[in-house]
Design goal:
The protein is mainly α and 422 residues long. The protein has one domain (9-411). Helices cover 69% and strands 0% of the residues.
């Protein structure tokens, strides 16, 4: 028997077993989370839109206090999924259970995919195994938001697009189309993912891991998804826009009573008095002038406050920068501590990656620089961290594996050995 020929097969089998074990562990932890409070229902904009879709068939009325009509305050895909749950299960408790189980499955898939993405990045699954353990500690049930699906989509896109150049041209184009479809769905799920998708596609192009034709297919399909959504918004709202929540977010986050953290804002009723989701007067203004004009007006108001309160605005940015990378522990103790570990160990991990000339370091650094920028000027919340938490956890795992005993690495059936990376 050829030992060299069987080694990759054994490695794949070991990797599959580890991925399955991580999936099961995440699913069990998720089931335990079901016993605690689950954010869902009244007050959550995507849930409100889903209810309107299920009952009226229109993408409208995202706010709790008043019906304001057609909206683009939130991207469409996740409310559509929730609306399907509502039409199928009908009973609110069953809808919550379906949305929560979906979230649990997505968290479990993330745990199982991280070792595979790690092998893609480093030719080594061990950093991904460590990152997955960090994910098990940090993951939360958030069925009111798209977060779980967004993370799985990003990991799947990285794996799929990096495989878009097989020997046969037809297969290459087909995989490029698949990657493009995933990217388009990601845009409709969370447009902010472009801050990760675009650097990844450019990185693959520079590394010649994604051909020009395949890269063009990906970008065309993402553009088509964006164009279709913007055409809908032009028809319903009168403007060719992607989202109309920037003014709402900035105005509720930057004012005389604003605090850095969303929880603190809400505890002082500052958010409630500035957001159309909770303020009747704000919702009435929005309904009277339209969502697009309201968004533009509140962006202008927030910019004026920033200019006239530079010291306070600077202090808020600094606190929000800290909260993004090191979220307040008192709000969500266990997830926050896990995120602290991921962030803290990612710094020496990235340094180690630079020293070892890991090419993927460039992509990770660029994504981690640009993705959070929008969240430094908005009231911070721990859920904003999750779409790029894996990009911190993998470098953290890369560093932590250096601290592990050599015997432990050997026991993982060769998974710690370095092979071709992205």
């Amino acid at each position: 028997m050829n030992t060299l020929a069987t080694a990759p097969s054994r490695t794949n089998e070991s990797g599959a077993r580890i991925s399955f074990a991580l999936f099961v562990a995440a699913a069990l932890i998720g089931l335990i989370h079901l016993s605690g409070p689950i954010p869902f229902g009244a007050g959550f904009e995507m849930v409100a839109i889903a209810k309107n879709l299920a009952s009226q068939g229109t993408f409208a009325n995202p706010f709790e206090v008043l019906n304001t009509g057609p909206t683009a305050a939130n991207p469409p895909l996740y409310p559509v999924l929730l609306a399907i749950f509502m039409r199928v299960f009908r009973i609110p408790a069953l809808v919550l259970l379906a949305a929560s189980v979906g979230n649990i499955v997505m968290n479990a898939i993330t745990a199982s995919l991280l070792p595979r993405v790690s092998h893609l990045f480093f030719g080594n699954m061990m950093p991904g195994i460590v990152a997955s353990v960090l994910w098990l500690a940090s993951m939360r049930l958030m069925p009111a938001w798209d977060t779980g699906y967004t993370v799985v989509g990003l990991l799947t896109f990285c794996l799929c697009s990096a495989s878009a150049t097989p020997e046969k041209t037809g297969q290459s184009i087909a995989r490029g189309v698949l990657a493009g479809i995933i990217a388009g769905l990601l845009f409709l799920l969370n447009p902010s993912t472009l801050m990760v998708l675009v650097p990844w596609v450019l990185y693959l192009g520079l590394r010649r891991k994604l051909g020009l034709k395949e890269g063009a297919v990906v970008l065309i399909l993402v553009s088509l998804a964006a164009f279709g959504w913007m055409v809908r918004n032009r028809r319903e709202l009168g403007a060719f826009v992607v989202r109309t929540n920037m003014g709402i977010t900035l105005y509720a986050s930057n004012n005389d009573c604003a605090e850095a953290n969303l929880v603190a804002n809400e505890s002082q009723d500052c958010y409630q008095s500035h957001s159309p989701n909770t303020s009747v007067s704000e919702a009435q203004v929005l309904r009277s002038i339209g969502e697009v004009k309201y968004d533009q007006m509140r962006v202008a108001d927030a910019k004026l406050w920033m200019k006239t309160h530079p010291e306070r605005f600077r202090a808020l940015i600094i606190q929000r920068f800290r909260d993004f990378w090191f979220p307040p522990i008192q709000d969500h103790p266990i997830p926050s501590c896990a995120i602290w570990v991921a962030t803290a160990f990612s710094i020496p991990g990235l340094i180690w990656m630079v020293r070892r000339r890991e090419h993927v370091t460039l992509f990770i650094v660029v994504a981690l620089i640009f993705y959070p920028l929008m969240y430094y000027i908005a009231a911070s919340a721990i859920r904003y961290r999750y779409p790029v938490l894996w990009l911190s956890s993998l470098p953290a795992g890369y560093f932590i594996q250096q601290l592990l005993p050599a015997k432990l690495k050997i026991r993982v059936n060769g998974l710690a050995s370095v092979g071709p990376s992205a």
